[in-house]
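Slide 14.
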Amino acid sequence: MRRSGGFTLIEVLVALTIFAVGVLATLRAMGIAIGGSDEQRTRLLAGWVAQNRLAEMRATGRFPPIGANEGEVSMGGRVFFWREETKGTPNPLFRRVDVTIHAARGDGHALSRLSGFAVEPLR
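Slide 15: predicted structure.
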């Protein structure tokens, strides 16, 4: 019996299986990369929210009272919850302000943290 020059059915199935595994691995890697870029975008926006809170305090010349303050803000189509904690310093003319940004109210996972100082304006 003479054999033709083509591939057997088993060889074709093995090749298709290897190809399918490669395609699935590529799709999974792309999904992870896309998810990582979304997380990075969220953290970048959260950092901007924290910077805006401190910049607003400086721009208005506000000298915040010691204590905590919370609120929410929308940026980039997402809602972020911020918490400012104002603490005294050894110099009574300065206050330390710690801003923490969360994706949800009461969420223990902070997306961004930023600290700054407020100076009491001269009278």
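Speaker note: The first helix runs from residue 9 to 60.
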